[in-house]
Amino acid sequence: MSPTREVYWNISAVWLMYVLLIPTVVIFFYGLYSHIRLWRIGKPEQRAGTFSQRLKQLWVYGFGHARILTHRYAGLFHSLIFSGFVVLFIGTLVVMVHEDAGLRIMQGKFYLYFQSLALDVFGLFAIIGVLLVFWRRYILKPQSLTHTWRDALLAGLLLIILLTGFVVEGLRLIAAEDPWAHWSPVGFVVGKLFAAFLPLDAFRPLHASLWWFHLLLVFGLIAWLPYSKLLHVITSSANIYFRSLEPKGAMLKLIELETAESFGVKSIDSFTWKGLLDLDACTECGRCQDACPAFATGKPLSPKSLILDLRNALHAGPSGAPAGDGAPSGNGSLLIGKTIQEETLWSCTTCMACMEVCPVFIEHVPKIVDMRRYLVMEEGNFPDSMQQALRNVESRGHPYAGITASRLDWCRGLDVKIMSQVGRADYLYWVGCSTALNTRNQKIARALVQILQEAGVDFAILGAEENCTGDPARRMGNEYLFQTLARQNISVLNSYQVKKIVTTCPHCFNSLKNDYRQLGGNFEVYHHSELLARLIEEGKWKPSGRIKGKITFHDPCYLGRYNDTYDPPREVIGAVSGSAIVEMDRHREKSFCCGAGGGMMWAEEPKEKRVSNVRAQHAVETGADILSVACPFCMTMLEEGVKSENPGKEIKVVDIAELLRGMDSA
Questions:
Q1: Stretch 58-85: mean pLDDT
Q2: Is the predicted pLDDT of residue 551 greater than 60, yes or no?
Q3: Among 187, 163, 162, 160, which Cα is nearest to 5's?
Q4: 25 in a domain, yes or no?
Q5: Which domain CATH number covers 405?
Q6: Of 506, 537, 568, which closes a domain?
Q7: Of 246, 274, 314, 509, whose CA is between 20 and 30 Å from 559?
Q8: What long-range pairs does 491-499 form, CB within 8 A, spacing at least 24?
Q9: Bridge partners, residue 182, by sequence
Q10: Phi and psi for 577 in degrees, rounded to 5?
Q11: Which domain holds residue 344?
């Protein structure tokens, strides 16, 4: 006899199941439609095309849980629950094909190995996963998670569905004296446990009652899904599929200044449809909040709360109360000052730590910058210190007040070629405001130039023709000023037929490499760590000795998370270090911001809330003698942070170029 079983054993009036399925499906799709209807109030945005690439991303990050698995505990229970319900769902489809389509596939070895053993094992996995959820939420209680009765109800419903499924299976196995019962080990054990307490003649009525109860719970879960947190099963998958496939550093959209009717985001319907999908995709896991340097230092920004507050605004009616029919009637109301406070927006360093850890690829930083754009370009409303910095950029070509140095003072005595004099060079060295005009950071430029000269690299600088790239203006929200500066710079670079650019500043690096492409500026842009690493690898420049002492390295946000450049700086350090780099707990893609990005370099911060002090303490805790950096912003912030956090012990802050060039001074 071929192994199989009667699908609807002991169940009568099976037709009633299909009757109940109709309202279940109607309620489910109406709930899903109500969300789609809200997303459609957003502005158009092109996220189609590249089907194969998007499908691959969905497979890796959606079904494969690539980012979720970076958190071991959460990754474990998500994988157990997800895989369990996927296999159980496939098993249900097999039953439908076997019974309702009449294809009779549920038999033989397939029945034993999959429909019996696999479903039992993966059902058990799902139960373990749900129990781990309860343990984490209601025993461990991490602060990053919100704990509501809806969460408990949802987890409890999942657990009851799984448990009743095993009880129903166990009762059938024993009552029907199934010859293949041992292939369903969990169900068989459950059935034996019931047999120890109940007479056999009670099994059939109990089985039928629990079968219908289990069915009603499953149908109830399906109907409730679009109205519960479980909606993220759909929305997170959609969000991953429609994630941006542009380089991470090009996350900000270009505003067409001449045709735009308004600038930035002032109301919920000012976001794009993808921006609104983001809000419903949030799983409330709190990883973004845990990674945020602003939140860690007590500032009023929680990326998680920001998204949830915007989601509440999306689903609110005109009075702020939940809209009963999902209508978007109240979504044109002003967000800033009501839903989102100004202080929240001006706390962001745009470090992108939140986006790096988000398992469903929510785009927090572009939303913040879009709301800043409204404040700056529509209302002229932003912090005084930032206003001064942008006025300086507009009038002086750099954001620094009180600077008397010129763009050429740093290179006196170095015989550096000026592009206006030589016309062309293999590389254009973009010095950047923070390097050229800051006395401390000028040493970085001098060290790099000396190495390039010794390696025989043909390069030149713009000198007085160099302007701010516009990065601070763009991240603060002044898109008009950014585009003005960028177009001027692109014109100058094109006039000299510049093809390759090297820069010591990751902010300039990201703007020239990613932002400028939106305006037609197509250049090969290298961070100095990349060029230095290549020169050393090719033997064109060799360090003269080794540095004694322990070295730790701080990954700049705009070099690492924005452009995935982690190894070249470490290769440079490795060329002169006598020992392995002592990594901080938060390094590479998990690096903690120095606090300077997003215009925060020019913001007023209370000493006890300075991001730079926290990062400096991370470096001090490694016991390193040298804190190496690869960004002039980081140099400024971390030198001050080290002095504040470690007055008793000297820890030198040096750029990687200085490590190569001046080991004695390091």
A1: 89
A2: yes
A3: 187
A4: no
A5: 3.40.50
A6: 537
A7: 274
A8: 492/462, 492/465, 493/428, 493/521, 493/523, 494/521, 496/419, 496/423, 496/424, 496/428, 497/424, 498/419, 498/428, 498/523, 499/523, 499/524
A9: none
A10: -85, 140
A11: 257-378
CA atoms within 13 A on the CB side of 131: 8
In this structure, how many other beta carbons lie within 10 angstroms of the beta carbon of residue 308?
15
Nearest CA to 268 out of 255, 277, 257 is that of 277
Q: Are residues 498 and 454 in the same domain?
A: yes
CA atoms within 13 A on the CB side of 88: 20
Calpha distance 562→312 (Å, rounded)? 29
Six token digits for residue 509:
């690096």
pLDDT tier, 650 (very low <50, low <70, confident <90, very high otherwise): confident
pTM for the structure as a whole:
0.90
Alpha-carbon torsion (505, 510, 515, 521), positive or negative: positive
Helix, strand or coil for residue 145? coil
Q: What is the 3-state secondary structure (H, E, C) of 51-106?
A: HHHHHHHHHHHHHCCCCHHHCHHHHHHHHHHHHHHHHHHHHHHHHHHHHHCCCCCC
Do 433 and 398 contact (CB within 8 A), yes or no?
yes
Distances (CA, A) of 181 to 124, 161, 174, 210: 16, 21, 8, 19
The answer to which of 103-112, 121-130, 156-165 has the lowest mean pLDDT is 103-112
Q: How many domains is the chain built from?
A: 4
Half-sphere exposure of 484 (CA within 13 A, CB side): 10
| pLDDT for the residue 320 | 46
Cβ neighbour number for residue 66 with a 10 Å cutoff: 15
> Do 602 and 388 touch, CB atoms closer than 8 A?
yes
505 and 597 share one domain: no
Residue 458 in contact with residue 466, Cβ under 8 Å? no
The amino acid occupying position 2 is S
Closest among 379, 306, 308 to 345, alpha carbons compared: 306
Find tokens 């270009």 and name the residue: 254
Tokens read off for 475: 């991240």
Q: ∠ CA(477), CA(270), CA(265), 5° rounding?
A: 20
Question: Both 474 and 436 in a single domain?
Answer: yes
Largest CA distance in the chain: 101
| C-beta separation of 297 from 327 below 8 A | no
What distance in Å separates the CA atoms of residue 429 and residue 463, rounded to the nearest whole number? 10
Mean pLDDT over all residues of the chain?
90
Beta strands in 466-592 (DSSP E): 500-503, 524-527, 551-553
Tell me: do 82 and 134 sit in the same domain: yes
- CA geometry: angle at 273 spanning 267 and 274, to 5°? 115
Contact 379, 423 (CB under 8 A): no
Side chain identity at residue 517, one-letter code: R
If asked whether residues 532 and 437 sit together in one domain, one would say yes
- Reported as a pLDDT band with limits 50, 70 and 90, residue 460 is very high
Q: Is 570 helix (H, G, I), strand (E, B) or coil?
A: helix
Could you tell me which residue, 124 or 65, shows the higher pLDDT? Answer: 124
Q: Which two tokens stand for residue 656?
A: 């990687």
CA distance 453 to 150: 65
Q: Which of 399-408, 436-445, 621-630 has the lowest mean pLDDT?
A: 399-408
**Is 463 inside a domain boundary?**
yes
